[in-house]
Amino acid sequence: MKYFHRLSAFLLLLIVLIFPLPAIAGSSSSVTPSTFSELDFKNKDFSGKVLQSVDFAKVDLEEANFSNADIRGAVFNASNLAHANLSGADFSYGFGYLTNFDGADLTNANFQESILSFSTFKDAKIDGTDFSFAVLEKWQVKQLCENAVGVNPQTGVDTRESLGCR
């Protein structure tokens, strides 16, 4: 069943990448930026912010603070989140392709059903992090299982169980 969910998520990703939704025009005064690309947001404070479906493409977010932020459905494509604080953040249904989470604090974060292909998590703190149905490669799961402990206080899911650690 877990394999089926991962395969479904991967196929959905391929469909979205091949057939993107058309853009809707609007006046520049009424449109707020939802895409950040090739920008430097080192040490930026996004704590507690609602950033649903925001697109961070090739953005340097090293040591940024996303604690308790609502980043559901957000995209971190080839971004740097090294040593960032994502404690308590909700990144469910998000997309983190080729993203650096090395040394990040992911304590009690929610990564349910996120696509995290080819991202790195070296020395990331994953105490109480929920990875249920997240799309991860075997080498990522092995890397994450080395430090996986705790139970997510919002979802009640054990971190090791959400990763399928043995």
Distance between the termini: 18 Å
| Run of helices and strands | HEEEHH
Largest sheet: 3 strands, parallel
Oligomer: single chain
Computed structural class: mainly alpha
- Shape call: globular
The number of helical segments is 3
Mean pLDDT: 86
Order of strands in the sheet with the most strands? 1-2-3
Strand content: 5-15%
Rounded radius of gyration (Å): 15 Å
Uncertain regions: pLDDT < 50 for 5+ in a row? Answer: 21-33
Explain what the structure shows.
The protein is mostly helical and about 170 residues long. The protein is built from three helices and three strands. It has helices spanning about 1-20, 140-145, 160-165, and strands at about 35, 55, 75. The longest helix is centred in the first third of the chain and has 17 residues, at about 1-20. The two termini are about 20 Å apart.
Brief summary of the model shown:
This protein has 166 residues and is mostly helical.
List the helices and strands and how they pair.
Blueprint: H1 2-18, E1 35-37, E2 55-57, E3 75-77, H2 138-145, H3 159-163
Parallel strand pairs: 1-2, 2-3
